[in-house]
Fold this protein.
Amino acid sequence: MKVFKNWTAIFAIFLFFVAVLSCGKEEESQKVDLDKKTSDVSRLVKTTDMGKSLTFCFDCRLDPQEEIKIYGSFLDYLEKETGLDLTLLFSEDYRKTIENIGTGKAQFAIIGGLSFLKAEHDHGVRMLVKGLDQNGKGDYQAAIIVKKSSPIKKLSRLKGRSFAFGSKYSTQGHLIPRYMLEKEGILLDDLKKYSFTGSHWNCARAVIKGDASAGGIQDSLAFGLEKDESIRIIAISDYYPRSGIAVNKDVPEKIADKVKRALLRFDPAGKHKDGLINWDKTEMSGGFSDVKPQDYDVLKKIAEKYRLLGDDLK
């Protein structure tokens, strides 16, 4: 796998990138920075000859530097299994992931359910495989958290309080927590204020720092932070389909099938463990399973309810 041919190059570019428009910033501030740094964004996007090289992008969920290491090591596995030349493309936020996979700047995306549904709606992207956890389950939950010292113990107490989401197009960081609040009778207008922080980590930081009374994040991060006594979980959602890997509609079926077969053979806890970096922190820690078109219907209904699929990417 290459990212600009070698790791040194990607980190030199990446460290500059993070300083201005990484997913460590709120989505609103990213939008301004991106307009100012168009030339730098274009350096990360290259024309791909599908006969020679294929590009993967990913939703930015955690620390971006760590995620580049995680997914870079994963693409090394895929290169060996498929014989394809693969490149990793950094997408500074969920919106950019949707744009990259949808327009063909990337041929594959490691992507959450809501981002996938938006890319499917706008660009005809399809899900290739669905992620599994370490127990082989293809679904996950979202958690609503508060600061450890917070007096808030139940969702009903959040009315009139401030709330932090992750990205607007995050399943666990927006769609599911918003639905959890609504089922408790709390609409966005019932909150004192709400913000989209851009990632699960940013959301957690906002809660820990006291910038928000509560926030919605992925279950695995919430469990880890609660174990470290940084936050307290006040609600856990029902189970919903996990993230997966999507493919652009113009990728030839022969290539998509080759990649899919390698993904289904992937054994991150067993024979393919060596060489991977922190794969247990991903939403595919147990590998991948086949996916059916209707698997994401439950999320689609909620997304349509909030008119997220027809929205412009803003």
User: Anything to note?
Assistant: The longest helix spans residues 64-82. The two ends are 32 Å apart (CA to CA). The domain at 7-137+242-305 is CATH 3.40.190.10 (D-Maltodextrin-Binding Protein; domain 2).
